[in-house]
Design a protein that fits this description.
seven-stranded mixed sheet; alpha/beta; single chain; Transketolase; about 300 residues; Transketolase_C; PDH/Transketolase; Rossmann fold; five-stranded mixed sheet; THDP-binding; 13 helices
Length: about 300
Amino acid sequence: MSEKIATREAYGKALVELGASNDKIVVLDADLAGATMTKFFKAAYPDRFFDCGIAECNMMDVAAGLSTMGLIPFCSTFAMFGAGRAYEQIRNSIAYPRFNVKICCSHAGVSVGEDGGSHQSIEDIGLMRMIPGMTVIVPADGNEARKATFALAQMEGPAYLRTARLASPVFEQDYPFEIGKANVLREGKDAAVFACGLMVSETLEAAELLAAEGIHISVINVHTIKPIDAACVTKYAQKCGNVVTVEEHSVIGGLGDAVADVLMGKVNCKFRKIGINDCFGQSGKAKDVLREYGLTADQIAAKIKETL
């Protein structure tokens, strides 16, 4: 994992590829094309790009309308303003009638860094996961963000894609992407560690640190939080007996709860959630903020050891 690219950038460039092969793709943004990286699509297909201004709620309603004309709208803004500010419109105008709209939000999690707690959405996965019929995807690297963007265009119905501001490692291993199917990136018998987004690369690094101490963990990339791969979660929980989830999101409502919902009453295992513990983010360099919240490889490794 040497090359680094932000999943938001990979998403933006994937849209251009997608637009070339599918003229039904339209892109909407809320005055943040330079940050969400929809600027690439805007430059390539200006007639299919709509800047709705700082009016996220209106943007979702416009997208809902466009979808009724057979178009496939991709809406982008920061996660705080998409999943947060426009929640009612996503729920009632997009999800309730099951319109084919893709809500693709960047700048999620505390790795947003300097923008601080007001902009660091740590609730978005939970908010979107609770909406009936909403597919929720959190890609782990640039390649996965590209594949997820193409997969969303192929699927019918509303979906939420979460991307990050911070550039993160691109995996050398090129594995298939299928909505609802987790990818096992490393095998180990001592613990099953389920991670998503930026935390996948941190967990893989934690696995290396633990292996040096004779502790071998399975690392499972759960890119689709909903529908979750229940079969994979159950299999590895039973195999390892110790389960840990790692996410750059509140421990309430996100990946940890999704995994717990699968296992509750079915698998007898030790269980721990690593994430943001019921508090807001704060301003600082992305790497410093991740360390403040215990989300770096060495800290994850230490918490896994504690659990064991």
